[in-house]
């Protein structure tokens, strides 16, 4: 495994330069593009890493998995009255579908759905951002996980489209808390800084029937894990979920910080990271690395 | 397994009456609704059946898998210049997305995509309908598989929406053969009559790395099988692909005749059938039966 | 004329009860539905009234004409870089078109366009709401015109959809001032209370080549008047602009308070009012009254 | 008037070269672009012409007015059960709106609406194309008006998008005759060749309360004329109806052959022609000429 990871890093690193670092906010645009890391954590407790696997980055939409886990944990199936689990077939931030479907987002991994999940969580936690940060610390086993307040503030400043989505849902009665407060929580979650190793550790429960391999904590039931993995498999990569299934064949979730997590059910939790994105907003080199990895070991679940 | 299938049939049969037989053409509307069958075919060559597993029915959109296999076989990756493999997020027969995306269908399992696949196949076979029928006979091992010409004629008569889609794609330059001829082929494919046993046999290669368990014929490469299964997993059940992943967790494809095929990679090919549909156009009882089956054995790939 | 107005009031009053008072905010829903008024003001300075022509009501979207006149007055043709003057073909508050057309509203008489106009005006006036109120007082000759602060506050509380539109435009770079401040101005404008007589007086300049018949003030040039009347003719009644042209044949603008103003170029300014709306959001009895009036005198400009 | 027309021709001719001749079919693309004509026919029976006013051209969508007049003549208000008279706010050949509004076209001057009108007429005439040609001959007083069969055949060959629209309407039950036959009629109508003088003569009844100034024939009632003019005013120039109202201020109808007819109610029928189109598909120089004409004489109805 270690040799394979090293080989993949070596073979995919030359692709750096073909993508484009997210620059919709200055705080993200400044990241050094020439970085690439991978971490694979097995259910046996073995950790394999290569490249910049220890460097923290902005997890961005990968935080949507944490949020969903929180919401499922305290509210269970009831959350599905507020949103669906179908692929959207639309760019990740489109309002067209949201309006046509009367304020019910397609799934929890597009921005609109994640905002509804944050709204649900906002009703359950006194300090939602701290609850999320503490969960990330606990599951990753890294007490140094922090929220990057500069990134969070910059996201808030450029909140226009997410604010539009939240108000549109409010107009359909599908947003219950103060829009501004939920947006602040949402941007705090996105601004968590974690490394590939942190994330591979943190999501081990998705590969291990709901029990964190690191801490032994039961996070969810085995059935809930297959459900969350199913949603990642059909909706985890924005408008490239089908491509990810076709090329990689694993449940996964990406963020515009360049990270992608993936799960080999019952075996491994994985995280790759490289900041440059393809036109669909997913890490260009990260995708390539995951495809090689999955192809070489034959990990596709299909 | 046999006991489980019998139990599932017994427990789900009472749901008959809650759905609605497809009636957009008279020839389909006349089917006896009170039918339910299941067939499971293992890579060891064992066949398990329960209920009306030997009764032929109209396979309808399940034929889209046959068409795609044909197209991949003779044209390989080149077909993806003509269509995608992303979920559509739209009702199965919507033209809105097709127009906004300039005549490129989202995937081969919505009607528009299947029409493009038929157009591709039309350029390769002298007699496309016979080629398809013979493939179905060969893979199912049943020389009695026939095209129901009454159903095909009735579908042709009610071709308006599919004709609209084909002409719209032609207007974007993404349809090369005579619209009418392709429509006739398409409806012939949909009008194939096969039983659950036929279909479980026919699709064994999708559970067996591309080799038909019945005949030993290599139909595709292992890599191609994971790709086709991936497309079924993300787009096989129209606007309920996410729901199918969440509830059943297997690659699958449904038809408005009430059939659903599913694949447990490396282990089983499955077909259930019950004519009544839910509002999304998928077999209501069939879905329930598959969910029970998958849940009880823990078959979800996620 | 007086006899005709009386007859129209008498013949259309029985239609009261067929429509529905706007009730999206409590402050509007409480209006007494059994009211109907009409005022016709000629370029000769004659005023004809019938029914409840002196009763002030919430002018709502009729204020969009005032806003547009302000914007044209200080910024001229430059405003058309920020929005268009084409009919929208969409419900008055849809965001679909706004997103597809990248934040450029179709015209100044749908909500999104009026918000852009308010944003333009916000950059020009120290106190936009007072500037608007004073303009309404001056043009109507009624110093008693006021902003109903209860209505304005209630609209603000239910601002979700308009806030969504404003933020969506901001995300496309087509909104320059603080969203909240502009929304407050916008709702203040909508909450102006004026009577049929006030409005017939106020809009006399649109029937009089740009000169207020009441005060003699030149408000705009003759060319600008034909332009504003043209926009009212093609876009003044939301999704019923075509119907209004077909049935009435005059430039006009409606509001959900039940008022409709209309212009007979070079001859008359008109206002009808009855609170009950048809499904398109226009005064049901008001439309009928205007149709009778226009038909009987042969006022259609077409 | 004559001097003004000559001046307009002289001043606008230099704009030739800025537009683009319609080239979606070869038979249209071959027209000499350097042509410009205008004809104005007064209710006093005076005819003024300038430039290439006697040169026949392909009237294309101007034929939609003839079709609508036919349909209104034999079926009256009943036609409005099959289509509307609202502006579409969409490109002239979009199917998106048609699907969302379940097969009911917005108005008779977009392609989909004109196809429904042709379908209505097809049920009323034994030989619809000849009926249309004879009507054009009678109203223009020119027995030499013919259908250009090369253009009609070429349009038929490139029928894909119109065929798609017709089948889509059929799928909603809003198309009653054989699609192919109606398409042939539709393309024959579009392929009529008439000059500016022919068209100014032919549409004199729209400026003359329904009576042809040329022949004295009553074509429609005065009320019907205001209705048809109203539809032209709000929907006659595809996605530029608002612009035409803003700039010209007259009811009008354009065709991709480069012709535009316009009506000064109770005074003049007008036709301009120049083959090059602007991006919205309307004659670039023709629009400019009409704007100058209307502006100089103060013809805007608004």
Automatic annotation (TrEMBL), chains A, B, C, D:
Its EC number is 3.5.1.2. InterPro entries: Beta-lactam/transpept-like (IPR012338), Glutaminase (IPR015868). It holds the Pfam family Glutaminase. One of its GO terms (molecular function) is glutaminase activity. Keywords: Acetylation, Hydrolase. Gene3D superfamilies: DD-peptidase/beta-lactamase superfamily. GO terms for biological process: glutamate biosynthetic process; L-glutamine catabolic process. Substrate binds at residues 61, 111, 155, 162, 186, 238, 256. It catalyses: L-glutamine + H2O = L-glutamate + NH4(+). PANTHER family: GLUTAMINASE. Belongs to the glutaminase family. NCBIfam families: Gln_ase, PRK00971.1-1, PRK00971.1-2. Homotetramer. This is Glutaminase. The gene is glsA.
């Amino acid at each position: 495994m270690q040799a394979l990871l090293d080989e993949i890093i070596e073979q995919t690193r030359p692709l750096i330069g073909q993508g484009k670092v997210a620059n919709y906010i200055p705080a993200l645009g400044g990241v050094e593009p020439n970085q690439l890391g991978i971490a694979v954590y097995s259910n046996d407790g073995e950790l394999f890493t290569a490249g910049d696997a220890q460097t923290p980055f902005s997890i961005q939409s990968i935080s949507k998995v944490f949020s969903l886990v929180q919401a499922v944990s305290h509210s269970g199936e009831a959350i599905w009255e507020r949103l669906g689990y179908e692929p959207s077939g639309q760019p990740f931030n489109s309002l067209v579908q949201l309006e046509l479907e009367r304020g019910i987002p397609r799934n929890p991994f597009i921005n609109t759905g994640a905002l509804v999940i944050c709204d649900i969580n906002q009703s359950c936690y006194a300090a939602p951002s701290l609850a999320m940060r503490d969960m990330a610390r606990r599951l990753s086993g890294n007490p140094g996980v922090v929220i990057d307040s500069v990134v969070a503030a910059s996201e808030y400043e450029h909140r226009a489209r997410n604010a539009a989505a939240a108000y549109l849902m409010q107009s359909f009665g599908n947003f219950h808390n103060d829009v501004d407060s939920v947006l602040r929580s949402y941007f705090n979650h996105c601004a968590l800084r974690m490394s590939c190793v942190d994330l591979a550790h943190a999501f081990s429960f998705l590969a291990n029937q709901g029990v964190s391999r690191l801490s032994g904590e039961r996070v969810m039931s085995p059935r809930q894990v297959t459900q969350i993995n199913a949603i990642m498999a059909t909706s985890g990569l924005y408008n490239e979920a089908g491509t990810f299934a076709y090329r990689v064949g694993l449940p996964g979730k990406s963020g515009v910080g360049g990270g992608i997590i993936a799960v080999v059910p019952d075996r491994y939790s994985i995280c790759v990271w490289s900041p440059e994105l393809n036109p669909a907003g997913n890490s260009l080199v990260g995708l390539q690395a995951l495809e090689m990895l999955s192809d070489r070991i034959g990990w596709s679940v299909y």
